[in-house]
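During the reporting period the student researcher (J.K.) took over the structure-prediction task from the postdoctoral fellow and processed the backlog of single-chain submissions. One of the processed entries is reproduced below for the supervisory committee.
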Amino acid sequence: MAKMWAGRTAGDTSKLADEFNSSIGFDSRMYKEDITGSIAHAQMLAKQGIIERSRRRRQEAAHSPLEERSGRPRSEDVPDESRR
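J.K. obtained the following structure tokens:
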């Protein structure tokens, strides 16, 4: 499998970066569950009054197109606030 950062940086990536990204193959198979969990978490935060409902709605709107896609999302398709 190609490295996640291939072509984006000059030279080799560090061992730490390689270890951090070693689960990307598994993670890419779990993206639908990750999106569902992110939406549920935003709903809980809004219900508890930790975030405003408008923020929860923005989170859901940002994730809905990803959830409906077939195939796995590309990193540029994921909203910045959702990246970990």
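The committee noted the following: The mean pLDDT is 76.
J.K. will present the remaining backlog at the next meeting.
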